[in-house]
Specification:
The chain is mostly helical. The protein contains 7 helices and 2 strands, in the order H-H-H-H-H-E-E-H-H. A hairpin with a 2-residue loop joins strand 1 and strand 2. Helix 1 runs antiparallel to helix 4. The radius of gyration is 16 Å and the shape is elongated. 35% of the residues are buried.
């Protein structure tokens, strides 16, 4: 049995974004319960040289919308990166999930060999679609989703693995 480029991307991004949405909902509720200004969570980071929670979510959604768009040969939607609240981040995740729902398996068929050109780490790179998905888009997406979770967990939000995995 083989897995299609669509199956390896769109449903995975969608499921992980739903779980990220649940993580953010739990954090927002935890801020209310503990009487913490939500900005404390939204601007928290794990280390001084790392991005804050808000930026982690923005970058995760950028990879989720960008990968299937590039693989399908579509223009990648541009977002303003102006989110300042949990509601804004939830709206961004919903917009990204809605974008993912516009893709079909047929549209990504054959994209494993499509040459993907983009800037990574300040340099222009070119690679086949499968290499891009497995070695650039997915690892970056998971890094930022995981870091968002870790920031909140580090700040005392009672999250568990089942929330991260989307099992709650």
């Amino acid at each position: 049995m083989t897995i299609s480029m669509y199956e390896a991307s769109v449903p995975v991004f969608s499921a992980r974004l739903k779980a990220l949405s649940n993580v953010l909902s739990a954090a927002e509720q935890n801020a209310v319960d503990r009487k913490i200004d939500p900005q404390v969570f939204l601007t928290s980071r794990l280390a001084p040289d790392m991005f804050a929670l808000t930026r982690q979510v923005q970058i995760a959604t950028d990879h989720a919308k960008g990968a299937p768009s590039r693989l399908a040969g579509r223009e990648v939607p541009k977002y303003e990166d102006n989110e300042v609240s949990f509601a804004d981040l939830q709206a961004r995740i919903a917009k990204t999930t809605d974008h993912l729902a516009t893709f079909s398996a047929a549209e990504l068929e054959g994209s494993d060999d499509r040459v993907i050109e983009l800037r990574l780490g300040g340099r222009e790179v070119s690679m086949p679609g499968l290499q891009y998905l497995l070695h650039a888009a997915m690892p970056n997406f998971y890094f930022h989703v995981t870091t968002a979770y870790d920031i909140l967990r580090h700040n005392g939000v009672p999250l568990g693995k089942s929330t991260f995995l989307g099992n709650r």
